[in-house]
Fold these 3 entries.
Entry 1:
Amino acid sequence: MPGIPLDDRGRAQAAALAARLAPLPLDAIVSSPLERCQQTAAAIAATRDGQQVITEDRVGECRYGDWTGQPLKKLAQERLWRVVQAHPSAVTFPGPDGESMPDMQHRAVAAVREWNARLGPGATYLVCSHGDVIKAIVADSLGLHLDQCQRIQADPCSLTVIRYTPLRPFLVRMNDRGGGVDDLMPRADGHGHAQGRGPVHSDAAIGGGSGGADTANGRPGMTNADMVNGATSIQAGAAASGRQPSADTRG
């Protein structure tokens, strides 16, 4: 909801996330225009020698129309609530400012794809966004119908990482609330974020591979595009998104 800043707990979560991500070079920090995401992104940028936060309207919160600011307990009594839960692809939120969930997914995924193209195949960048938006992006990365997005969880200030390649995206992490970032770092052999912008590999590891921090079959575990929720980290070759709790209606 517009005009709702982070509370004390949210600021503490943002500071913890910023400290956690501090070792990871980011080619861009992209944020929803809503205040709580801007605050999260600013906390992350503050550890990076003046790196600027770029506002991207297309990763903003779903436009809930007349539902905006309403208590969840009240909304749960609405007939539309069950549709949101079971059949989100059929949902258009009420009122002149209401948006459909498919339209929300389309704009958010289009934004990620355009940032991937803008930053290039070796980039890693952060997107601070919201729960429903992140769940919709994750569903797209897995080739799932939007109706399956409610099976995905995106907690405040969790980290979701998606690696985009020419053939398919790879969901590297989802709703991670405490892991390190060693496997996301630039590699000494020149693969990954900073050096050389090596080839982007679309093949999946057979038999599970050797883990994201290692190289299997000459293939770096992380090459491009990652995403963060609460911070979503996207490697353009990746994407990221940062989400803080909204007031009443929360993704």
Note: The first helix runs from residue 8 to 21.
Entry 2:
Amino acid sequence: MSESLVAKPAETESEGASVRMLSARDARRDRLALAEVLVDCVTGGASVSFMWPFTIDDANAWWGGVIETVTEDRTVLFGAYLDDALVGTVQLGLDVPPNQRHRGDVRKLLVHRDARGRGIGAALMTALETEAVRRGLSLLTLDTASGAAERLYERLGWTRAGVIPRYALWPGGRFCDTTIFWKALPSTS
């Protein structure tokens, strides 16, 4: 879908941070900042698909693939900014099978460690959920290996579906359990 045809939701604010949906053009402009946030999270031990050592070049290359999916309208990308600096991001995955077009996947909720504790994760999730409702989705799913993220999702009304033991690895190579969450969204009709 053309970037100019995609409706933009209003910005969300949280303790001085603003959250907005990013076009592919925006993501290309902020690609280094997106890479820096990802590297910070992986360096801090987040189980978000990557292993140590993880470099800025690795992150930059990975974001290239994400930006392509934004261009193809298979991903909706959000960025959180403090004083015009990108400090967090989350993705709404829309590339689901034909019999699951009613749902989306939440991917890579990432907040730079220096910006945590300011409500940025909640603001990113609120923006994502608002856009999902606007698009007519009725269900969101996600997985996490973080206790802090689990508490955030529960505060935001998500339901824990269960825990899968030894589902993934921490960046250092140890196994970690993964918790699956879901959230039903209000109908717009």
Note: The radius of gyration is 16 Å.
Entry 3:
Amino acid sequence: MNCGYMKTNNVLFKYAKNNTSQVGEDGVIEEILKRLNITSGSVLDIGASDGKWNSNTFTLLQRGFNVYAIEKSKSADKMFILKETYNNLYPLKIGLTKEKESDNHINKVLEILKVPQDLVFMSLDIDSIDPWVLEDLDRKPIFFCCEIEPRYYPLDMIWHNPSGNKDTNPPQNLTGFGPMYKIAKEKGYTLICTTIQNLFFLRNDMLEALNSPEVTEVDDLTNFNPKYLSPDNKKRWLAYERN
């Protein structure tokens, strides 16, 4: 297993392991649920692909959690086949928009899907309007993970740019660490773990319930691991550290 996005104070990452997740998220989720003594409930997967491939929620589906899954691509068709085996899967094939008056805005889509308010967990990975979805979301899951582009310089506030070049290193059309961290903090969450490309946030009112004094907020600057930066951004980071 590769080291996490942060180089220290990332104790939950030692539990990283994959069932269907990409970079150890399954193990991190399992450990957080164990520490919070949560064995059932509802989870939300935004950008669920086919419900299984690189999924952060399929293991929870297998364990009996209700999984509400949103996906716009053709991969979503496979979720409806998966539902024949798992009646606790609630898939919806739809694309999201930032436009708040649209029927495709996240909160209206959640109403269509009848997603409950008391979510245990959310996985957010749509590689586009993720910051706006998180900002507007009217549910407050106990904890969530969101994917970012780890090659961006962490101090840059890089938001999704639909016209950005996808073929550069790093690509110019994704979202970096800064916006997701800022929005999560403003919504009352603390960063408690990172993998290479996912940030894990826990709702502040649940920090005591985590009952883990060794898990404090992952410092977004002093603990940053430059391993995954693009070459140019790695040079910038080394210069930052020297100062």
Note: The chain has a mean pLDDT of 85.
